[in-house]
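[job 4417] fold queue: 2 targets
>>> target A
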Amino acid sequence: MSFLVHQYFGSLRRMSERIGLQPAISPSRISASSHSPLLSVMEVSTPKGQWTVPAVQEVSLALSLSNFSASWRGVQGFRSEAISEGAVAICEFDRERVFEARDAAKFAVFLLRNEALEQMRHEGRRVRTELQVHEIFQDATLHRLLDVVVHERRGGFQSGPLFLDSVTTALASYLVRHYSTASFMGGSSRGGMAPAILRRCIELMEARLDGDLRLSELAREAGLSTSHFLRSFRQSTGKTPHQFVLQRRVERARALMRDHRVSLTEVALASGFADQHHLARVFRRIANMTPTDYRRSLQ
């Protein structure tokens, strides 16, 4: 595991151990991992009965991964509800929650570092970024953002940190805009990047195609916040930073495949893909053919 995975796995493991002290939950039924300095995620499976979610001093959200019924005491008093798959919760800050489940349940827990919301506060000139508690609700956009993170975790974060950083920034921005207690104090910056700044950012991407590149590094190069960088880059190029990097990685793979002595595994790693299967999946989506078919077309 990378340093970042080690760093955030520790905090999630401590959280898992606290949950595991409850008779209804076994630590072996909790899987946790992270690939972002601002976001951690774990999946939990619980049997019927009582289980406890510990107090966490970070913004925490939950996404139901199954249908189940449960009772609990929340901010609005005692509640007993049937919870559907895809339901979302913005949990109370630093407060333990005890649930009595009438069915087995599966859900994902997300820990969003406070710094992610602070970035939104500075950009939007908000006085505070405290989120309103919402115990159970439906929000299609929030569901999609959280579901993307779950699928990334299950796939081993093959899309890389730049993609997850972008999703995390979009998640924080959406939460602040729609579920923050503070009002907006001013308009956000608009427009694309100056050509010289855009060129420097692309040069940084090109230099790091075969390795991990963080959104914060690109934003720092441009002198912008992460969310402003995402908007400006897309306005300038028509692509998100992640889409742009994938396009350049496919172009590099095409060039490397001209040398038939280089294996597809070597091509994948040299182009910044996790493995040959990752290369094949992305290459086919962008080039409309497999790497093998492309290599044959060169003969």
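>>> target B
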Amino acid sequence: MKLSDFKVLTFDCYGTLIDWESGILTALRPLVRRTGVTLDGGTILGCFAAEESQQQAATPDMPYAALLSVVHARLARVWGVAEDVAENARFGASIADWPAFPDTVEALRALGARYRLVILSNVDRDGFRASAARLGVTFDAIYTAQDIGSYKPDPRNFTYLMERLAADGFDKSDVLHVAQSLFHDHAPANAIGLASCWIDRRHGAAGWGATAPPPPGVRYDFRFESLADLAEAVRAGG
């Protein structure tokens, strides 16, 4: 298997193209400050991951901004501080402030010269529109959790993706899914037999950050520590 075998790259957005962990930590700062105790970044992100994954499973049709607001309220309860409704809403709206990784724009432009580029993201339409200007390319298709009615790792998201790509004339063998989260993306890609590329943004960092731990046996076909490394491998011949 070579990178040059594929015609379509499908991307997770948050964690892969957008640096959601720094965005989440910044947006949670007021709540963390109100706890009155020191919480390190790994602990904060781990708590977020647990509450987010539980809320996504419980309310799969809730738009992501609203879901983030609920997660913020859940975190207030976990950390034993009073809920602030306005603070919940600000956290839900913080998606627009989450930065792109420094290599994202240049790498996407290089990859877009070779592949069809598609988004499969756990976000709502407004949230993605808010991030799109940071990404520097026009995607050939964008599929959000709001379009599908469920959140990854629900298999419905990848079924939806492949049905639409098939309608455009692409086979599964034409598609490489590119993502950071082993939990949200690689495990369900494995389940439908879709090739995947792990962008290991957290290389060397302890824990799983803002994502839940992956199931046993999850695998991937390619691994790079950045999107720039993937683009360079493609440029070098795949």
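[job 4417] complete. Note on B: Strands lie at 8-11, 116-121, 141-144, 175-179, 195-199, 222-224.
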